[in-house]
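@channel sequence for tomorrow's demo:
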Amino acid sequence: MSSFHNPITIIIADDHPFYREGLVNVLHSSDRFKVVAQASNGKELIELAQEHEPDILIVDIGMPIINGIDAVKKITSLGLISRSIALSMHSEDSVMLQMLNAGCMGYLDKNTSKEELFEAIDSVVIHDRVFFPASTNTHMMELLSTSEYKPYPEPVIEFSERELEVIGLVCRDFNSKEIADQLNLGHRTIETHRARIMERMNVKSVAGLVAYAYSNKIIGFF
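structure tokens (generated this afternoon):
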């Protein structure tokens, strides 16, 4: 695991106080995490995210006033550093795709275990990697490559051979350092490639890059 400042700061957004408090207790069982605020709706989440700019937002999709997807979309558009993981009792394909389109880096079922929750946070915050539960990961990749629902508009962008190499490795869960080692390039060069690719795709997260690549069949299903 790469070094990262401790504790990782978190905002939990869910309209059920009992569930929020349960998550707080689970996260505070480790000194690696600190819940800095709680939101009961999407409007509160947007305001608190701007106030605290935590490392990660754990966001219920089905919140009142502003739902979780629209709240994350707004936070992403504001350019805040916070990354986000979506929470839901439901896993409809269209909802998961909209979640990626909004800028989320991963998805967790509300019945997730403590171990999977911690793994998701580490994946997104420390390793800059997309996270889906093991039970849905393969389905998610297949969905992105076959679904008629396209979160990103046509036409498909033409990418250089080097860009396609970077896209393929990102989709195989390589982080920037590992991609740099694989391609014998500098870490900063890979970061520049990845930022340019995301800008051209008009996506805001690594999850968005993966979603674009699979949904537009830029790469094959691994």
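heads up for whoever presents: The beta strands are 8-13, 33-39, 56-60, 83-88, 106-109.
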